[in-house]
What we know:
Distance between the termini: 52 Å
Number of strands: 0
Structural class: mainly alpha
Shape: elongated
CATH class: Mainly Alpha
Amino acid sequence: MNNYWIKLLFFLILNFAALGLGGLVTGDAVLGEWYQGLNKAPWTPPGWVFGAAWTTIMICFAFFMASILDWDKESRSIILIVYFSQLLLNYLWNPVFFSMHKTVIALLVISSLFFLVLWLFRMGMKQKGFPTAGLILPYIVWLVIAISLNAYVVINN
Length: 157
């Protein structure tokens, strides 16, 4: 197995592990009284869309990460720090929003996540150009939607 496929497998495992941990923390909170009682945005998608979107995003993101990690050692280290930081923020949003009910802090977390992903997109454009960087666009689009949903909850509850 060559280096690219090993990196791809590594990022697939990490991405889906983070999603799984986030799901464990969230548990049944989506069906819980607090979340169900929130005034949610009219454009809130049905529950199944979240699973489909995150699956697609994490697959594309794994391909993206496996593709951009061929820079020099220093640049690779920075990219990995940003990657693991976004993974942590992605995970943290769940307990902050669903368990702690801290919607403003959750909005700050997801906004920070957005800027880290934008930075990764910029690095992908710089290193590989649009075809590779384009793999991260579903993540960016979804984060814009998620930020709007979180902001709606902050403003209207």
